[in-house]
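User: What would this chain look like folded?
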Amino acid sequence: MHLFGEPEFWIFLAVVAFVIGVWKPAGRAILGRLDARAVGIRDELETARRLREETLARRRRLAEERIAQEEAKALTEIRAVTVDVAISAARQVITSELDQKRGAALIDRAIADLPRQLGNSAGARS
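Assistant: Here's the prediction, encoded as structure tokens.
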């Protein structure tokens, strides 16, 4: 019983009681902060993943739009070249097969048909 009379024993016992009393609320606070930080980090990672997917989707969409524009441009250029080749070929065929007399007859016929064609196009506009 000599232990209960020692002041060091009572100080030791008080320190142990104090640590136990403080550790529970402090431990909860520390663990709560750590949990909150983990949730925050998880949310930031999720946001970063979502933004990355959106950025990739936007890049993919822009690339697809550029490809479609280039395809349309190429088709337009091909059509223009095709028309030029067709006109050139038609010009060569016409000039090689028409003599001066037949050419004059075609021109005279086109001039004679001109008033009728102009009348049809004016009537179509009205």
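The chain has one domain: 7-121. If you want, I can go into more detail on any region.
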